[in-house]
Amino acid sequence: MERKMTSKELAAKIGITTVNLSKLKTGKAKGVRFETLGKLCAVLDCQPGDLLEYVPDKPTK
């Protein structure tokens, strides 16, 4: 999804650090607040499903 915006600009618009934005982009974040997700969707003009992917836990033996 290309929006012609730097990570620094996006982070500033949604009120998080560039480090936290990087964690979200790379899938290394442990979670995301609904407020942050809402701000991302508002700025990027998208729906949460455009940004999130369900990945089931690995089965335990």
Tally of separate domains: 1
The ordered H/E elements are: HHHH
Which structural class should the secondary elements be placed in? mainly alpha
Number of strands: 0
Unreliable residue runs = none
Please, what is the average pLDDT? Answer: 91
The major pleated sheet works out as: none
What Rg, in angstroms, do the CA atoms define?
A: 13 Å
- The helix fraction, in percent, is 40-55%
Instruction: Please tally the helical runs, counting DSSP H or I stretches of 4 or more residues.
Output: 4
Between the first and last Cα atoms, what is the distance in angstroms? 38 Å
Protein name: HTH cro/C1-type domain-containing protein
GO molecular function, one term: DNA binding
Organism: Lentilactobacillus kisonensis DSM 19906 = JCM 15041
InterPro entries: Cro/C1-type_HTH (IPR001387), Lambda_DNA-bd_dom_sf (IPR010982)
